[in-house]
Design goal:
By secondary structure, this protein is an alpha/beta fold. The protein is 38% helix and 14% strand. The chain folds into 3 domains: 35 residues, no CATH class; 101 residues, Aspartate Aminotransferase, domain 1, CATH 3.90.1150.10; 214 residues, Aspartate Aminotransferase, domain 2 (3-Layer(aba) Sandwich), CATH 3.40.640. The strands form 3 sheets. The protein has a 7-stranded mixed beta sheet with strand order 2-8-7-6-5-3-4, with helices on both faces. Helix 8 links the parallel strand 5 and strand 6. The N terminus is likely disordered. The structure holds pyridoxal-5'-phosphate. The site of pyridoxal-5'-phosphate has 13 residues, from helix 6.
């Protein structure tokens, strides 16, 4: 990389240039190979998030956002915070945590707030796992687990799933300090079998995170696990069911002894005051969101049925997305053709799922446009 200053000047500029080139002021001017980067960081491929287009002309069905805005009484919470942006927020997100505790029937000291649930997942790894120790997760799941564990220098152990991407039994992973299990589990979106989860938690040597990012779209929850196991952390996000992806609000719910340790690892002031206020208002107004979840679920049922009619192999879903493989075109080609029609879905260039697309459940109107775009592409190939 070139430095800001070439070092060919005279006088004070030449001295400054020398300093710059020695990396005193401009580390980028040094030979990059000399900089010590942790091998675990260098060897980890960067996480690839779903595309966030910079224009508003896409039907966006690629990152599992809620298609419906939060209700007005939730959005109103922003106004009270704007005159206070000069002041730091509550470092421990008390109101938000109390709202979560009330909603989920736990104590305040059982709740930790995160800057999105990605923050929670990071905190968990840094609290319970030393570099070199084992972090386990399914061989197909939320890919950020691997990135976080690998950057930390943990040993990654992938648990095999069957041809339908399902668990075939409890996860038995001797020595694992941490097991991540998302239920519903992406990219398929089906919840994991309850008895396998229960047996996993009972036999685990370390902590088990049950990641319920999509829990509100499913009939299953795992709150009762908290009464039985002191090694279980339930992770929740307000990004999907509470329509607050742009605010970054996540929650960990667990035994106070685990939360107390995680709290030391968390960044201070990890949630800004607008995120705390919106998150609190959302949880306190849960009843306003329930009809939206029902709407997403009924659109999901319709989407699954229509995709099957359009000759897709469709995976059953308990989440706000549907994972499906077209039988008449390569998934990568369909992804591209839809993108050209300004409809974004998610394609993963991963060997096991190369012929699948993951489609977020949008509004009925958005799904109608998607289905008619697919039907016309299919028609043009026949
Ligand atoms: C299983 C799972 N967990 C966690 C997250 C992260 O959610 P958040 O927006 O709260 O960071 C996602 C996001 O897609 C996810 O799929």
């Amino acid at each position: 990389m070139s430095c800001l200053y070439s070092g060919n000047g005279v006088g004070v500029w030449s001295v400054l240039g020398e300093a710059l080139n020695k990396g005193i002021f401009c580390p980028f001017g040094r030979n990059f190979a000399m900089v010590s980067i942790r091998p675990s960081v260098r060897q980890t491929p960067a996480y690839v998030p779903g595309e966030q287009p910079q224009t508003n002309d896409f039907i966006k069905l690629n990152t599992n956002e809620n298609p419906y805005d939060p209700p007005a009484q939730v959005l109103a919470a922003v106004a009270a915070e704007l005159p206070k942006v000069r002041l730091y927020p509550d470092p421990v997100s008390t109101q938000l945590r109390q709202a979560a505790a009330d909603l989920y029937g736990v104590q305040l000291n059982q709740v930790l707030a995160g800057n999105g649930s990605d923050d929670i997942l990071n905190i968990v790894v840094r609290t319970f796992v030393d570099p070199g120790e084992i972090v386990a997760f399914l061989d197909l799941t939320y890919s950020l687990y691997e990135t976080i564990a690998s950057v930390h220098g943990a040993k990654v152990q992938k648990i095999a799933t069957d041809a339908n991407f399902d668990l075939t039994g409890p996860v038995i992973c001797p020595g694992a300090k941490l097991i991540f299990l998302a239920s519903p589990n992406p990219p398929k979106g089906k919840h994991l079998k309850r008895e396998f989860l229960w047996q996993t938690c009972a036999q685990a040597e370390g902590v088990v995170v049950i990641d319920e990012a999509y829990g509100d779209f499913s009939d299953e929850d795992h709150w009762d696990f908290l009464q039985e196991f002191d090694n279980v952390i339930i992770s929740r996000t307000l990004s999907k069911s509470y329509s607050l992806a742009g605010m970054r609000v996540g929650l960990a719910i667990a035994a106070p002894t685990l939360i107390e340790e995680m709290d030391k690892v968390r960044d201070s002031y990890n949630l800004d005051r607008v995120a705390q206020a919106l998150g609190t208002a959302a949880l306190r107004n849960q009843a306003e969101f329930v009809p939206l979840w029902q709407k997403v679920r009924s659109t999901r049922t319709r989407l699954m049925a229509q995709l099957a009619k359009l000759d897709f192999q469709v995976c059953p879903s308990d989440a706000n997305f549907v994972f499906a493989a077209p039988r008449w075109i390569a998934a990568a080609d369909l992804y591209q053709a839809l993108k050209e029609k300004k409809i974004l879905v998610r394609y993963f260039n991963h060997p096991r799922i190369t012929n699948y697309l993951r489609i977020t459940v949008g509004t009925d109107a958005e799904i109608d446009q998607l289905l008619s775009a697919i039907a016309s592409l299919k028609g043009s190939l026949e």
